Amino acid sequence: MYIVQIIVAFLIVFPLFFAVISSLRPLNDIYKYVSPVTLYTFLPINTTFDAYVALFTERNFGKVLYNTFYVSIMTVLFGIGFGSMAAFAFAKFQFKGKALLFGLVLLTFMIPFEVIAIPLYGLVKVFGWIDTYYGLIVPAVANGLVIFLYRQFFLDLPDSLIESARMDGASWWKIYTAVVMPLCKPVTISAGLMLFISQWESFMWPLIATRSKEYKVIQVAMSDFTTEHATLWNEMYAVSVIAVIIPILLLLPLQRYFIQGVTNTGIKE
Hints:
This protein is mainly alpha-helical. Helix content is 68%, strand content 0%. It has helices at residues 2-23, 50-57, 61-92, 98-108, 113-127, 133-141, 144-156, 159-167, 172-180, 185-200, 204-209, 218-221, 233-251, 255-263. It is a multi-pass membrane protein.
């Protein structure tokens, strides 16, 4: 089992390692030592940070990072807020059409995005949100999987806890903010990470919904390094490293909560 795990880890880590090494090479050295494979294939001879410097001095990559962070963080904040409120209603309230509505929520994360891309574009265009932050954020706020995770957690909360708060005169908003939400830290972290990574890795929708460089995000910006006459491989590798490292830095310290949040909200019905 250790041998198998080492092999799998190597297959996962090696592409990232090669990307890091290639991002530290001059452009002319990227594939100079690939064939035949030698020690210099994996160790740069002329180490340079020119690719990273060029990203922020020549490519306006700071704006791209800002856009990506802003869109991701806003999606997390609004997605957790609306998703948890919807889940609380599904878990603790009784109303007509509840089962049908929740079934539709489940369908939303089972249908491939490609199926709804064109109708979604038409809807966003009607609102005038093409090439705006609204067009990038709002369609991702309502996430069916987030609602599902919160609902499964809320179903395990004893009704007596809520009834006690109601008897003490607490409003439903007070119960939601002061009683329920503080108890679901693992689920909130899990949902937040899923929303953040989903937006951070999003390519198709930002490509469709934006036209100018003003709102370009990191996955779309990678296409800028392939020009008519050449491909700027060292800068592309540098962007790839940044695009991978940031989610990893978020996921690693929160991994325990992420696993706990998912495992504690399994299907119990």
